[in-house]
Design a protein that fits this description.
- By secondary structure, the chain is mainly α.
- Helix content is about 60%, strand content about 0%.
- The two termini are about 25 Å apart.
Length: about 210
């Protein structure tokens, strides 16, 4: 079986398991999604969803957020970790959105990645989930599973993203990256994982990792 045939079969299996792909981070518009994704760095989506309602009570759009004190933002988001850096980024990017983008979240990768605290993965999530632009955000789940399934070498997240984009049709990227995340959380954890009992790893898993 070729790598492409394997990728096609994995996509089919994931589509059967997860026909619906709700966005894991609670939000109501591109701005609140952007902030939620920023907060999710080194933090679980569940924890972010517990914290953001309190942050939205303080401010849920750039104009009111830019008027808050960084210390007040930091106090709310502390449970998400890295609160000094994240709170400053939220404050600064809110000012930039007002000054450069009329208070709107920009709809290009380049402009998003110019914002404080926004890297390529965060920009990819916003572009795909807020604006429907095909993207393939690679988080730790996707990076790990792509290596386990022999779809990429695991050398870097950048390499994994390029490999997956070559293997899967552009029109399914936005759905597929969520399906892989859901699968990783339900069936394919980083530790204590018996690959012989995993629906996909047992069929396509890297033999050197098999128990």
């Amino acid at each position: 079986m070729t790598k492409q045939e394997k990728a096609d079969d994995i996509a089919r299996m994931l589509d059967e398991l997860y026909p619906e792909t709700p966005i894991p981070l609670d939000h109501k518009d591109p701005y609140t999604l952007l902030i939620a994704v920023l907060l999710s760095a080194q933090c679980t989506d569940e924890r972010v969803n517990q914290v953001t309602p309190y942050l939205w009570q303080l401010a849920d759009e750039p104009y009111t957020m830019s008027q808050q004190k960084v210390e007040d933002i930091k106090a709310i988001i502390r449970p998400c970790g890295l609160s000094p850096r994240k709170s400053q980024a939220i404050y600064d990017l809110s000012h930039i959105l007002i000054e450069k983008h009329g208070g709107q979240v920009p709809q290009t990768f380049e402009e998003l990645e110019e914002l404080p605290g926004v890297g390529h993965k965060t920009a990819s999530v916003v572009m795909s989930q807020a604006f429907g632009v095909p993207a393939f955000p690679v988080d730790t789940h996707i990076h790990r599973l792509a290596y386990r399934w022999c779809l990429s070498t695991g050398k870097s997240v950048e390499k994994t993203e390029k490999d997956l984009k070559r293997l899967f049709p552009r029109e399914i990227w936005n759905k597929l990256h969520l399906q892989i995340i859901f699968f990783g959380r339900e069936y394919c954890p980083a530790r204590g994982h018996d690959m012989t009992q995993c629906p996909i790893c047992s069929k396509y898993g890297r033999k050197s990792l098999m128990k």
